[in-house]
Each structure stands twice: as structure tokens, then as C-alpha cells.
Design brief:
- The complex is a heterodimer of chains A (468) and B (223).
- Chain A has helices spanning 5-11, 37-45, 77-92, 108-115, 146-155, 180-191, 206-209, 213-221, 237-243, 252-262, 313-326, 352-362, 378-386, 389-395, 445-454; strands at residues 14-17, 23-26, 29-32, 56-59, 96-98, 123-126, 140-143, 157-160, 164-171, 199-204, 230-232, 275-280, 287-289, 297-299, 341-344, 371-373, 399-400, 421-424, 439-442.
- Chain A has 468 residues and is of the alpha/beta class.
- Chain B has helices at residues 21-24, 44-47, 85-93, 105-113, 123-132, 162-170, 174-179, 182-195, and strands spanning 6-14, 70-73, 97-100, 117-120, 138-143, 148-151, 154-157.
- The termini of chain B are far apart.
- The chains are: A alpha/beta (468), B alpha/beta (223).
- The complex binds iron/sulfur cluster.
- Chain A: Its EC number is 4.2.1.33.
- Chain A: It catalyses: (2R,3S)-3-isopropylmalate = (2S)-2-isopropylmalate.
- Chain A: GO terms for molecular function: 3-isopropylmalate dehydratase activity; 4 iron, 4 sulfur cluster binding; metal ion binding.
Chain lengths: 468, 223
Amino acid sequence: MPATLFDKVWDAHEILRGADGRSLLWIDRHFVHEGSFHAFDQLRDRALSVSRPDLTFGIADHYAPTLPGDRSTIGDPRIRSMVTQLADNTGRHGIRLFGLDDPRQGIVHVVGPEQGLTLPGLLIVCGDSHTATHGALGAIAFGIGASEVAQVLATQTVWQTRPKRMRLTVTGRLGPGVTAKDLALTWIARLGADGARGHAIEYAGEAVAALSVEARLTLCNLSIEGGARCGMIAPDAAALAYLRDRPMGPAGFDFETAAETWAALKTDDGAAFDREVTLDGATMAPTVTWGVSPEEALPIDGRVPDPATLDTAEAARQARETLAYMGLTPGQALTDIAIDRVFIGSCTNARLEDLRAAAAVLKGRRSRVPGVVSPGSTAVKRQAEAEGLDRIFTEAGLAWHDSGCSLCVGMNGDRVPAGERCASTTNRNFKGRQGPGARTHLMSPPMAAAAAVAGRLYDVRDLSGCDL
Amino acid sequence: MEPFRRLSAPALALPLANVDTDQLIPARFMKAPRSAGYGGFLLHDLRVDADGAPVPGFPLNHPQATEARTLVARRNFGAGSSREAAVYALVDFGFRCVVAPSFGDIFAANAVNNGLLPATVPEADLEAILALMGEAPTTMDVDLESGTLAVSGRTFPFSVPETWRAKLLNGWDDIGLAQQHAAAIAAFARDRQRAHPWVIPAMSGPAAVPPQAQIPRPSPTQS
Ligand code: SF4
């Protein structure tokens, strides 16, 4: 029977089905970070050990200090203890750790693909919802909670109910200045922040095939913001080229054997999806969020909604509340929204291509606002420096930081002050995400760079001389 | 885990949509060990203002709010991150059930793993339920066996995936359930590694930084 890519990978990991109908799934890769301590505490309380430390990787990212300087001394003792706790837990259980001083350190969802730990056909989990990122290479990858992390640590398996399958086909080609981030924000705005709830998405179509692997990682990363369990893309020649010669991936004969297996990783003709959605990529524009949910996104030439024109009283009430939090006036043009700072970083948009795209806009220009650029990994940082991107950012007036989650979540002490407005390449514009009272506008790296130059939300396509 | 069958207790209305996990528990509180108790962090930044004073009229600040065991909210409750701490905050505050038209998938799984019932009702029913509830906690009967809840003399069906229903009713523990299949797991792992040796990550070799330079520069149409 014709099968979907998702079902092929799922079936290859199903050990058995329990009496309740759930699948017991084998896990190929498990990433843990500072926030995984609850799971380690559960293990300790139950006197359990880690079943497969060789398939488990620890990465310091969420609480990693990103201010340039000595990372071995973290001022805030509570933040320091989060990082040392991870080292203790991984050390105790014999789990490899990419700690703050490791050249492989970075944000877990940047490091996995970069190091060759993320491969087609694998089942990957992490106690972090943006684990969906890894699906860009044809893996099933999803975020799990601490109790499930404990189960994976103890048994290298997890109980799951098979989600429904949804195919999101994007026809046409994205125009210049329109990125995977814009594609993602567009579909989430159209379908809603819970639009794909309960589904595993397979992204397909001409616009998706034309994306670089790094852009695909961005697209899959944002699957969770539309409520999907995971997102995946069938591996193709571009994926194969990306996967070759990764430090911890298969090499030589192993790679060739693996590649033969990967060739079957695509949805068969005639395979049925529970849901099919088709969007036209050619009509998409650079898109920014104006509100406090990723679904509150609009093309840059749009205006924030006027609650008075909304259909229901509840929708109007909610819009009023959002506008008040965001400090916006009804009907205001997006390009009239002045920003206070800019952040280029996170597992969504801090890979090398993202930094190159932002640097292409900032080259020879000045940012009107302060801002931070935090590369997605230490390896990205090194390479960006080798290309001179760091100098473009610092000459534009932005700070060049070390790698970590930083202002994506504000756990490491980096904060956007209350009431300030940040143009951000991250993934969540939730209230308080970047700090209590912070106002976040999500956008692509070139759009964040354009906002920095203009001091307000701005259509990057209107900046003269940009090589988009 | 303690089984969940029936719950007859005050329910509190939180008539908001998209209550994401960052609101349920702001990230800065997540350094605390569970034993510290997470109830005080629940919806912290909505509950208290910048000076730490309770926000008047916010449902959780109602004098009887701590007696509530069920929370009623609008769509997409628990969207966002996988932080189980969001569930710890609800459970430690006293909640055992959340009623909403939809939940974030990971949140709902985390809830069930902590004995918190995520009960889904259609949007129209949710509005009807909210209309029957006042600002003060209102008694609600939640019956997981029959899949119904009753408030102010009216009964509404709710849904919860069958697997989760069984797990909550029986108080099953997933680690224990998996350990019963230790032999099957070990055989599966062996077979998988034998059939696909490449699934095991390369251990040796240089701790090299990856070949970033090989990533082609974006072409104009890709940027
Ligand atoms: S960068 Fe942000 S979204 Fe990504 S793993 Fe870190 S906190 Fe999560």
C-alpha cells in the first residue's frame, strides 16, 4: 500500500503497540539540555540509570551566557548552577556533553544537523518543542515533556499515539526577499496557531524543494508554532550534499549504504493524507507579527487590525488587549511601528545563511537601534568570523555575541526591557517571552536587518542596493 | 500516578484564548527544583503587576481561587513550549482538570503524565459553560468514565483521546509500561543496529567543527 514519508519512518521505529493502542517507539537520538534536570531528578528518585548514553547528547544552550568573554565564570549563581547541573547529570550517566567550552556547542537544533547527528529516517526527540527542526532532513523529530524525557533516558523508547498526517504543498517560487520564515509565518497566519494541531506535516512542492537545507530547517522549526507535532521534508540531492562529511555522521561506505536506504524516504504516489493544504509561494511577501501569537502575522505592507471591524465581541476584546500589550493603535501601518532594538539569533534563524542574509542588508549601513547578533552555534560563529560577517554587524553598531538561546527565551539573563519593542528573528512573540513586558515582532533575518537600518518595521525589498 | 475517575470540585473560569506555556510559567522561574512547589509561579505575570501587587479582577486572584480544581479556558490552551513546568504550576496550584476547546499537543501529553485531565469540549459548549460560570469558582462535576461534565444543572460531553483516558483512569506509569517490554526493546535495538549500522553516531575521529564552508552561498532567489 502506498505510504507517506511519515508513516514509513514511524513504522520503522514501532517496537510494538500497547494494549491501549499507543506505539512504543525506538529513539535513535536524544538531546538533553539544562532544562532536562526535572527528568534526571525523576531518574534519581526512581533509582534508574540511562539506557543508551551513546545515543544521548547533552548541550548547554538555554542558559548559556552569550556576552563575549569568559564563559567559565557565570555571575548569576542560579544560572551557573543550571549549567553545572547539566554537566553533573551528563557526567554521572556517561552522556557526551557539548559544554560551554566545546567547539561543538550551540543551540541544540542547530548543532544536531551541523554535527551529522540528525540524519534521514531517524527518530529524534528532545525536551524542547522546536525539535521539529530536525525533520528538515527527513527525520521524525518532536518535542517531549520532562516525564517523557525520563522515559527515553531510562528505556530509549517513548509511548506515542500516531498523529494524523498533513501535507502542506507550496507551489510556485518565493520571490526575492521572501524567506522560509515568511513562508512559515504566512501559513501559520492563515491556518492559525493551532491549525495543524494533532498532525505531522510533510512540506512539499516547488517552493519547498527550492529551499536550501538551512532554510528547510527554519521552515520545519516553526511547525510547532502552527500547532503541528512535527514537520518533515523528504531528503533529496540537496539534503544528501548537506549530509556528506558531517563530523558525527556516517562516512565512506557507511554513507553510501545509508544513502541507499534514504532514497526510499519519500511519500509514495497515491499515499493518503488526513489533510492536504496548498498555498501559492509566489504570492507570499515578507511577513512580520504584530501581536502575541505567531498567528498574528501580516505581510509587511499591511496594517494592524482595528478591533471595531472584527466579527465577534470576543475577537474584538482579544485584539484590543493584544494592541494594548503591544502598544499599537488600531489600523496602524506596520511600517509605522518604530522599534527599540533588534535580535538576530535562535534555532530558527541563526545559521550561517541567516547571518549572511542579515549581513548583506547591513553591509555599509548603520543600525539606528541597539541590537545583538548571537550565532546559532560556536561553529557558525567561527565561520561567520572567517567570512568577516562579525565586522559587518559590529560596524553597523550591533553587538556580536557567543552562541546560545539568549533573547529567544531570556533564560540566561538577556532581556528586552519592559515596554521596549524588539525586531526579532526568533519563533515566539508570546507575552513576556523576551522578558516581562517585552514586545516582540517576529521576522526573517533580512527583515530584522532592514528594521535595524530603518529604526522601524520596514520592507527589506525597498532598501536600495540590497542583494536579495 | 493516582488514578483519575471523578472530580467534583469548584471550577474557575479563565476566559482567555492562546494561554501559552510562557504565560503559564514564565521562563525565569524554571530553575527551581520541583520540590520547591511551582504553584506560586502559575500565570505569574498576568496575576501580579510589575511591582508584585495582585492584578485586581484576574481570575486566579479571586479569594476562593485556591479551592478550584478545574480550570476553564478558551482555545489553544498550553500552546508553545514543551516545558512540563507549565503543568507542574497548574498541578501545584491545585488543578486536576483543564477544560478548553483545544490544547497544545505537548502540553496535553505532559498534563496526562501528571494526572491532570485535559478535557476538550466544542467551542460552542465552552462558551455555554463560561456563561453558566460566574467570576467566583462554581462547582463542576467531571466524570472521566462517562466523559461528561456538569455545571449549574447542565451536562456537557467532553472528549479525551482513548489512550489517555485509559491511562488516567488506571493511573498507569509509562516507564513501568515500557519496562514490561524490555526483551522486545532489546531485540529491536539489536536488529536495527544490525540492519542499519549507520544509525549509530560516529564516536571516534576528530572533534572537528563541521564543514560550514561547504554550504553554498544562497543564490539570489533563495535569500
Ligand atoms: S533558541 Fe529558543 S526556541 Fe530554540 S531551543 Fe533555544 S529557547 Fe528553544
